[in-house]
Amino acid sequence: MHGGMVALVQTRTIRIAIAALLAASCACSAALAADPKRVMVLHSFGREFKPWSEHAKAIRTELDRQSPWPLEIIEKEFVTARSGDENPEVPFVEYLRALFAKRPLDLIVSIGGPAADFVQRRRQQLFATTPMVFTAVEQRLIQRPSLTENDTVVAISQNFPAVIENILRVLPDTKTVAVVIGNSTLERLWLEVLRKELAPFAERVSFIWYDDRSFADILKRAAALPPHSAIYWHQMNVDAAGVVHHSGRALPALYAVANAPIFAFNDAFFGGEVVGGPMNSVAEGSRQAAAVAVRILGGEKAGDIKIPPVGFATPKYDWRQMQRWGISEKNLPQGSEIYFREPTIWQQYFWWLVLTIAVLVLQTALIVALVYEVRRRRKAEVQAHQRMSELAHMNRHATMGELSTSLTHELGQPLGAILANAETAEMMVNAPSPDMNGIKEILADIRRDDQRAADIIRHVRSIVKKAPGEVMSLDLNDVVRETFEFLSAQASVRNVTLNNLPPSQPLSIKGDRIQLQQVIINLIMNGMDAMAGAPDGQRRIIGRTTLRPGGFAEISISDFGPGISQDNLKKVFDPFFTTKADGMGMGLSIARTIVEAHHGRIWAENHASGGAVFRLVLPLAKSVHEAA
Question: Per residue in 492-515, pLDDT tens?
């Protein structure tokens, strides 16, 4: 029984809770479905006048964000604040009375001092019981004795000495401060406040007041301020000439010509023309004003809400203006905020720069490696050339060793002739009647034979000596002819017939005579060796020098030996390849190196009728090539 009672109580409790939730939900839905709350935003100077226009925009945004109810926001402008004439207020009052007679307002938000003053003076005629929030107004402009229980204030507090202190801190060399302010009734009021509160700075800086000048004249003077000057922009609603100016256009015009940095008291001007510093925050003041408005719309009594004035916010500065005017970051107050700081190249393109640097490092490493490889290769080529030169020199020594018999025979002929002629001349001189003509002929023969022996010795020495190559203009026909003549004695000893068949025209080339003769000697000597077992009548070597199309000369050395097997045709120029029992296998390899160094090529082939032929092709000198 007791358990049943508990269950019954619990069931009733749940039903009551559900009913309460449904009632609350219905009430909330009814509230949301009700007519929107009507809020009038009353401007002091118009919707385009800074800083009040920025306060109004921010308050509307905050109201939409904070309000749980739909709002109907009506904006009106108290434009008579631009002049001191009160007569235009009468029609404006009648207009507002007619506008809200049938549908009264739920709340009035005045923006700026003139709008607040207007409502306080006309309150009983228009909005005797409508709650009101005074905002975006400096605390000194609030007529507190005139406030009613339906009024609350979210004022701002302006510290003008702090603005000047900021200028002198960030620009310690400042000597002159030009104050830009208009000449309307409200601006004349602020002019007196500024003169009084800035008087203590008179010993530190000189003030220039622009309240008594037209804006056009102000622009001219701002463009010619003395060095170490600064400009304090207060406001410019109406200039001394009676011309109305919107700050949204006037401040940029001043900035375009001014030769000094510009400072202001409200951050509504921040973000383009002013340097910055301690300023009233539009965002903070508007947030608090909207929060108070929502509390009043929610049922709180306006007169019971007390909000302290909103003072200057944390100093903030425009990095772009700091760079333009050379303001050091170390001169800023501690805790300052810097906006619009342009990111460094590293910050903007960090990964691109890292990638670029990596690519550059890789390229540098590759270039260094390539340079090292090129130098190593050149060094290797130089060393290879030196070794090849040494091998060529050794090859010439070996060749001379092979030619020693024929050289002995070749030198023996002129030396024997010299001896015989000398003995004959001696006998003729000792005769009773010397035959002088015969003696002269004998001496001429001795001179000729001596010259022949000297030429043989010079030729041998030039071939054998170890000296760097000398490239010069040569007639290829002479090179081949001299080589065949030099080897004629060796050919005679081996019973080999040498035939040289030159062309009719000279073949001029650029080359080293000794190296080219070494190639031809190697080819002829190889031909002689190949025909060692052939009958005497078949031992012949034929040398031909011909002109080829395209500016080339060809030398062919043909023998009538057994030829070269097909397997060995491609190997004969390889280093250390030889078919001789006592051969080194370097002669033809050296020959190919020499020919290629002369920009030519060499190859071997077989005659169809037997025997082998070696061909080497060399480029002609330019003049011969062009003539051909």
Answer: 888 888 999 998 889 999 998 888
Average pLDDT over residues 267-284: 94
Give strand pairing partners of 40: 74, 108
Spatial separation of the C-alpha atoms in residues 453 and 592, rounded to whole Å:
32
- 427 in Cβ contact with 399 (< 8 Å): no
Q: In DSSP terms, which residues pair with 473 in a beta bridge?
A: 510
Q: Which spans in 180-246 are helix H?
A: 185-197, 215-222
Following DSSP, what letter does each residue of 551-599 receive, concatenated?
Answer: TEEEEEEEE-SS---HHHHTTTTSTT--SSTT--S-HHHHHHHHHHHTT
Task: Please tell me the total count of domains within the chain.
Answer: 5
Among 113, 37, 66, 54, which residue's Cα sits nearest to residue 290?
66
Please name the amino acid found at residue 572. Answer: V
Parallel, antiparallel, or unpaired for β 107-111 and 37-43?
parallel
What is the per-residue pLDDT across 88-123, written as a single tens digit (0 to 9) for each?
Answer: 677 888 888 888 888 889 999 999 888 888 888 888
CA dihedral sign, ordered 493, 497, 503, 509: negative
| Domain containing residue 235: CATH number | 3.40.50.2300
CA–CA separation, 95 and 100 (whole Å)? 9
pTM (2 decimals)?
0.55
Identify whether the C-beta of residue 112 lies closer than 8 Å to the C-beta of residue 45. Answer: yes
Q: How confident is the model at residue 67 (pLDDT cuts 50, 70, 90)?
A: very high
Please report how the helices 247-257 and 215-222 are oriented relative to each other, as an axis angle in degrees rounded to 10. Answer: 30
- Cα 169 to Cα 162, 245, 281, 335, distances in angstroms: 10, 31, 21, 14
Total residues belonging to the chain: 628
Inform me whether the pLDDT recorded for 459 exceeds 70: no
Are residue 173 and residue 210 in the same domain, yes or no? yes
Sheet of strand 540-548, all strands in order from the earlier edge strand to the far edge = 497-501, 540-548, 552-559, 612-619, 601-606
**Strand (E) or helix (H) holding 156:** strand 151-156
Residue 357: which domain range? Answer: 351-379
* Claim to verify: residue 307 and residue 363 sit in the same structural domain: no
Are 259 and 325 a contacting pair, CB within 8 Å?
Answer: no
Is the distance from CB of 178 to CB of 233 less than 8 angstroms? no
